[in-house]
Each structure stands twice: as C-alpha cells, then as structure tokens.
User: Fold these one by one.
Assistant:
Number 1:
Amino acid sequence: MSVETDICVIGAGPAGCVLASKLALMGLRVCLVERVAFPRRRLGESLSPGVAPMLETIGAGPALERAGFPRVRRISVCWEEETMR
C-alpha cells in the first residue's frame, strides 16, 4: 500500500491526535500512525492535567466532560530520595 502525505505523526495518544488534527486543519495531508490497533486492552486510563486544555483546542472538551473521567488535580514525581510536587 502506498500513501502520499505531507507529514507522518507517530503515536495516536492525546498529543499525537491533537497535532495531527491541527496539521490537517491547516491543509496538510497527515498520516497518523499507532503501533497497536484500537480498541486494545488497557490497564488503566489517566491523563495528566495539561492534556485537557490541549484537547479543548480541537473541540474535544465537551466530549471529555461528558465522558465523566475523574480529573487529576495533582501529581507527584519521586526520583530516588527527592520528591517534587
């Protein structure tokens, strides 16, 4: 199979989908590639706090709200002895 495209976005996570959508809206021919077919088995779903505003830029905010996912309000990162909040 041959695909003619202007740009290929690797990874169909939130960032990849938003980037691909924005580029397509700019008139580019976009190929979005994901390693594993959807739907796939998931161990859990979570989005970091910065993802919701990114999804809102492509009009997905209302769908995200309707889905009723719990919001992550705070994250902690622990690297050995040091903790960042």
Number 2:
Amino acid sequence: MAGQHNAALPDGLEIGGYRIVKKIAAGGFSMVYLAEDANGQTVAIKEYLPATLARRREGELQPIIRPEQLELYRVGLKYFLDEGRALASISHPNVVSVLNFFRA
C-alpha cells in the first residue's frame, strides 16, 4: 500500500458533531480537514489514516485495512489517541488547543 493516495472524507459530512468544509492537508499518517461545529465555530479535524496501512477509495467512508496490517494499525491508532489526550491537557500559547477528540 506504500505510495498510495487515500480519498478524503467528503465535504459536508457530519462527523462527531462537526461538519467537514474541506480537506486542507494530507500527510503520511493523517488528513486534516477544515470543519465547523454546530455553532459555526471553525475547527480543524485531524484524521488518523496512515497511507502505508489503510486505503480509502473515492466515495467510501471506511478505510480498508489488510488483515496482516490490522495490529500495527491499531497500535498506531492508540498512539494517535494518546497524543490527542496529551495535547488536550496542555494549555500554552505555542501549542494547538485540542477542544475534542473522538473515534468515528
């Protein structure tokens, strides 16, 4: 799966109480979206989607993970969520504020 291109979640999708406006960045292990909450506040959503372990095709919401990659995917997801928890506990002007993190 190395070097593959993962499809972004569709604009307008409601997820975790937020509405995706558009994809703003993609990297080796995640995608970042501009989104809005129910009050219209602009937020960024970072999605765990490692290109070497998971594949999402255009028009689909769930990524495909090969069975032999599933354990490594789960370990990475655990670390991704741990990072969210750690960032949520930090309040500093030079560190991004985490308002929420969720599994969807």
Number 3:
Amino acid sequence: MIYTSYFANSRNFPQGAIPVAICRGVPNWYNGLVYQSVAPTQRILQEWHEDNDQMAYNVRFAHDVLRNVEPVRVLNELQLMIPYEVREKMDCPVWDSADVHIILLCYEVADAFCHRHLVAAWLNRYFGTEKIRELGA
C-alpha cells in the first residue's frame, strides 16, 4: 500500500514501512528516502507564504509540478525505491501490496493543507479509486 503522512507521525508507522519524503527539504534527524519529482518548487512555496491562497497553490502545483510527470512513472520510481531484497519477494506492485508499505511524507499534520494530499488525489485519479490515503485516516 501507499500512504501519506507527516514526519512527526513517524513513530506510528507500521513496522517495516518505507518512508519516502516528497518535500524540498527534510528534518535533520530524517535519514530515509527522498523523492523530489513531486515536491513543490521554491517559487510555489514562496508564493504560498506570501498569499496563503490555497486555490492558487493548487493551480501552481498542478501546472508547475504534476503536469511535468506521469503517474505511471512516479509509481514505477517509487516501486524501484523499495529495497531490492524486499522487491524480490513481492508478488504485486506496492500500491496493491498488503505487506509492503510506502509512506509519502511531508511536514503538515494530517488535516492541514499539504501538497502530499494533492499528490495522493492525483495518483488516485490515475487509479480511479482511493488506493492512496492518509495513514490513520
């Protein structure tokens, strides 16, 4: 399965879960994987801090980030980030696995506006279902 969550929730992750940060920077203590193909640009973050306009952020993020990557490519690259020894034992892709979990991480708490929710919604549109959801939701 693929989930979304935030760094401060890491103590609640299932055992063996594979955290993957999808933000521009990570906390000093974080030593997990990083995938920046779906991270907001510096411009998007700067404009968000200036105007706090969620609708404008959504448009900027869709235009500047999501339209430049393909969902299937993102999913394949996330799959390849799984350690080889784990991948070798898998009999299905991670998004269908009941045993292997990738958690896409950012900073904001579960109910706060965050780009990871936009990424999850974008991938869910690709699947045509709610495969990716917030951990614990």
Number 4:
Amino acid sequence: FPSGGSGTITISAAKEESFLVIDYSDDGCGIRKEILQRVFEPFFTTARSRGGSGLGLHIVYTIVTQMMEGSIKVQSEEGLGTRFTLRFPSRAE
C-alpha cells in the first residue's frame, strides 16, 4: 500500500483434491508488469534505497517450493492489487 495508505488484505484456504491452497490478495498498488516476472529472484528489489534486500519473496519461494514441495504463483496489475496462490500437497487424510 502507498506510504501511510490503507487497504484490504484477504487470505483464504481450501482443500482442492490432494492439495491445500492458500490464496492471498490485496487491493494495494500492484506490481508493474515489467518487474512481475522477477519478484522471486534473489536480491531483486525496487526498494533498495529504503532498506529492501530483495530476499523476502525469494525466501518465501524457496520455502514453498523446496521445503514444502509446493508451488507459488503471483498475479498483479499496477493499480489493482496483487494475488499470491500457494499450493501444497495435503499430507492429512
């Protein structure tokens, strides 16, 4: 969200077949199209001047895909917010 701004974050979870699906969405600033494909790259940040390291989403990606054997995808449009969908194999019956 813009500095000092407010907005809405929605998080939901559901079981789909043999997967747990967690959906995060917000109505914030969104991510510019030209950087959307890079958000999971290590050290990629648009906030370096504000102390950003570019490791946050890379760490999330690594945990989700390697440690939890799942997947994560991002959808966003500048000015319309962002959505992350995480899918994990369900281990519970």
